[in-house]
Amino acid sequence: MKKLLGVTLGILTAIGGFVDIGDLVTNAVVGSRFGLSLAWVVVLGVGGISLFAHMSGKVTAISGRATFEIIRERLGPRAALANLIGSMAMTLLTLMAEIGGVALTLQLLTGVVPVVYILPVALVLWLILWRVKFSMLENVAGLMGLLLIAFVVALFQLGPDWGELGRQLVQNQPTSNENGLTYAFYAVALFGAAMTPYEVFFFSSGAAEDKWDSTDLWLSRVNVSLGFPLGGLLSIAIAGCAAVVLLPAGIGVSSLSQVVAPVGVALGVAGIVVVLVGVLAATGGAAIETALSCGYAIAQYAGWPWGKRVRPAQAPQFHAVLLGVVVVSCLVMLSGIDPVMVTEFSVVFSAVALPLTYFPILVVANDPQYLGEHTNGPVLNFFALIYLVIVLVVAVAAVPLMILTRMGA
Amino acid sequence: MILGEVLSRPVRCDGEDVGVVIDARFLLRDPDRPGRTPPELVGLIVGPRRGAAFLGYERADVVRPKLLNGWFARRQRGSFLVDVDDIDQVGETVELRPGFTRWSVQLPPHGGESA
Amino acid sequence: MPDDLPQHPAQDGRLLDANLHLLDRQLLDRDGRPVLAIGDVEMDRTEGGRLVITCLVLGSGLTARFFGADRPVSTRETMAWDAVTEINAAISTDADRDDIPGLWIERWWRDHVIGRIPGGRHDPG
Fold it and tell me: How sure is the predictor about B45, in pLDDT bands with cuts at 50, 70 and 90?
């Protein structure tokens, strides 16, 4: 049974990576403006993150060494610090947005202003990080997040013109009233969102928390094969719903209520409640994932003990980081800042962290000192190298595109 | 002496630039009980430029992915080991004795390294 | 990538390249738990005049590498070489965690913050 539920690590990682509050809104925005013509980017992103999450999970399971330890060891402390700063900025911004996202969801469920919920949400988040077992986090947040399948159900229920959707999928071009630069910006944003460094930190550190060893490599493959494609499917379904309901009506997406509106159209109030509970679990799960990733990355960079599987007193600085990031995020969100806007900025920092994260993982995945006989085969290396090039291109293009298109306005 | 102070120092001989210190090689006489005898300095590894040596593609038997291996190994081509006795002095620069020998930087395959 | 240079005679033992095999690696205590990253390596002369590694300098080594030799030796956290038991992807030692002076910061956090919050000293879950 333990091994069956072992796939929840992959599901939770994917949920925090593909359908956190930022992605929920971005996918809906993309659907309402571009239809499904950017779905190929999601597919590309799923391939990339599956590859690298699996590699980093493999390295941690077999060598016992965590991802950021490897980054420091391969790149040296200065380059690794540059990565750490970029990754942390991005992950911390995402954590702030998730806390805000939970509050926004609670507003839609209860009608109470979000800012009232910020402090209680932060407190509950910290308590969960402090006391709840890792396995329970995975299982509860992961499985409840699956309620987002309501978007898939809603898409079918809406009875869309499948021919039209299919045409958008294949077209791969912006619709008539959008220009190529904006299309490129959203392609880069979607790809960067699918391959965030914190997913890799979380997946590989989670593998250690779940005590995977060399006999669990099949489990890693199952996790990535199930979790990330599922995340991608949910992303595309959200875009699809927006494409069917909002695009023809020319309705823009600027708030969470517009993201879930199509589900209401298809499945009524019951549908909205179900999907909102799913959003709650997904944004809550993403908050847990990003907070833990901050702790993992900083502790592993410094060489401190880390992990939820030991007593807090045995990993005091790791827990100090968790406490610190939750407090900082809470304070920032109390100012009433819009969580979605926060995630839009985080893409910029991700651009720096992406190549510096993936390059060391690829190198170590080929090192017999770390992996013994389990080093990468030529096929894995081939695809991994291609993705490394894509990641570099995205890293270079992200900031100029952001400036040129004014954040995709 | 702290190794970090010596790394990246320029290496010269007879007033000519020879390279940059990229590593220091030690011999561990009792590999099964490393703590027993402290590792002895065999010599310094000198490379044509600093940086990228951390991957060790030019030395160890990590040869894949081939593309990365090729690129990084080429960057450090011309690296060599210089014996400690061929080192005249270590200061702001490392001065080598004229007529010093260039030894191979190749490490024996898996020399005692367990997975 | 093989070169055309002769192999150095020093072969009777295991060859270690400090930057490649030691620097920036994880140091573990006797229970296999992470201690700190290895930041640098300290050498000294034996009675015979040979230079040998006497201890490992702990910490990310950032301050040492950015500011050079200016930091006094006594403030550096070190681990004597004779504690080393294995050299792999990480460096294992037989050091008892409570006997490592370099972990004073960790102990401070444990005793003054984390250990004081209810549940801090209990097993998780």
Answer: very high
What confidence tens digit (pLDDT) does each residue in C27-79 have? 999 999 999 999 999 999 998 889 999 999 998 655 445 555 555 555 568 89
From chain A, the residues in CB contact with B64 under 8 A are: 366, 375-376, 378, 381
Domains in chain C, number: 1
- Give the span between the Cα atoms of A7 and A3, in whole angstroms: 8
B4 shares contact with chain A (CB less than 8 Å): no
CB A202 within 8 A of CB A16: yes
- Residue C114 is nearest to which of A63, A69, A320, comparing CB atoms? A320
Q: Tokens representing B115?
A: 């997975």
Structure tokens belonging to residue A309: 């599987």
Tell me which residue range forms the domain holding C75.
18-116
- Closest A-chain CA to C58: A303
Q: Are A339 and A93 in contact (CB under 8 A)?
A: no
- pTM, two decimals, is 0.92
Helix axes A339-364, A180-194, angle to 10 degrees: 60
Question: In this complex, is the C-beta atom of B87 within 8 Å of any C-beta atom belonging to chain C?
Answer: no
Total tally of structural domains belonging to chain A? 1
Domain harbouring A309, CATH code: 1.20.1740.10
Distance of alpha carbon A331 from alpha carbon A312, whole angstroms? 24
* Residue C123 included in any domain: no
Please check whether residue A409 lies inside any domain of the structure: no
